[in-house]
Amino acid sequence: MNLKITPVPPFDFHLSATIFSGGDHQIRTYQNGKYWQVVLLNDNLILTTITSLGTVDKPALSVVLKSNEEISEDDKELTEEIICSLFNLTIDLNAFYDEVKNDTIMATMTRQLRGLKSPTTSTVFEALVDSIIEQQISLKVAHVLERNVIKTFGDQLTVDDKVYYAYPTPENIVAATVEKLRNCGLSMRKAEYIHDISNSIVEGNLDLENFKTYEDAEAIIKEMIKIRGIGVWTAELTMLRGMHKLEAIPADDLGLRRHIAHYYCDDRKISGNEAREIAEKWGQWKGLAGYYVIMADRLGMEL
Questions:
Q1: How confident is the model at residue 292 (pLDDT cuts 50, 70, 90)?
Q2: Under a CB-based contact definition with an 8 Å cutoff, are residues 303 and 109 in contact?
Q3: Distant-in-sequence, close-in-space partners of 94: CB < 8 Å, separation ≥ 6
Q4: Mapping DSSP to helix (H, G, I), strand (E, B) and coil, where does residue 31 land?
């Protein structure tokens, strides 16, 4: 089954998907103009393969859906919603560009990275689990552990004799033991945090998706840090990655501070408070602007 999606322009699919280059072929990756990932819809696993048909100013995406089960019209509509969410396709970047036009450095970045949209996870749960895994360790190590968790607990889909994995659900995690999480390379505390949060969701005591309805970012942080294992940094990162809250910026993140310092402070080591002060220039788009800084540095952009 095929889908055609028309994102809100400007949108540069290659630029937006390049963050996934080098990803695990069995989970999600971007290669040779194609992005693929398995999504879970009402117990139906669907492999989505996305390519670009359009331009930055007239974007269009072609999506091929494959599954071992029948793909209903409802599945088709839900898949489109998930893809729109994954790449933030409904956001009008022109509002962001207008907001930061008086910041010379950011304005230059936005011109060079025009059409770049930040990714969002399919669920808040996925963003939160990844953020917990990434606490106080390098991203390189964290990505290995994240792959271990996905391949240990995620549901499998075999298409064209190839095996793919969906991101684990809370039910997948709860059905296993804390020790099995530990075997993925997680510390005891992180394994307990993830297992406890999954259990709270399954028992109906925690609804992470409901946080998307909150308008006040501070209110989300206040509620989230009540959960064992979640501090301000983890809450901010989860908001940015999993809730479309682009005003959130995890300014205490060492990597983000390093990137901001490179472009704004001549590589001088800066504090989280200094990073937040710089981010004030970006208004309600702090998180997206921070992502532009990260991508600019990742792509070796010199201003």
A1: very high
A2: yes
A3: 10
A4: strand
Strand intervals (E) in 116-222: 156-159, 162-165
Q: Taking the CA atoms of 160, 163, 169 and 171 in sequence, report the sign of the dihedral they define.
A: positive
Residue 241, both tokens: 């990655």
What pLDDT digit, counting tens, does each position of 21-77 carry? 999 999 999 999 999 999 999 889 999 999 999 999 999 999 999 999 999 999 999
CA distance 62 to 300: 30
**pLDDT tens per residue across span 245-286:** 999 999 999 999 999 999 999 999 999 999 999 999 999 999
Quote the CA–CA distance of 248 and 89 in Å, as a whole number. 19
For residue 141, the tally of other CB atoms under 10 A from its CB is 12
Report pLDDT digits (tens) over 83-138. 999 999 999 999 999 999 999 999 999 999 999 999 999 999 999 999 999 999 99
Nearest-angstrom CA–CA distance, 172 and 151: 11
The reported pTM is: 0.96
Q: Which amino acid is at 250?
A: P
Peptide bond preceding 10 in cis form (omega within 30 of 0):
yes
Q: Which amino acid is at 205?
A: N
- DSSP class of residue 138 equals -
Question: Which DSSP category does 69 fall into?
Answer: S
Q: How far apart are CA 9 and CA 58, in angstroms?
A: 6
- For residue 43, count other CB atoms closer than 10 A to its CB: 8
- 34 φ, ψ (degrees, to nearest 5): -120, 135
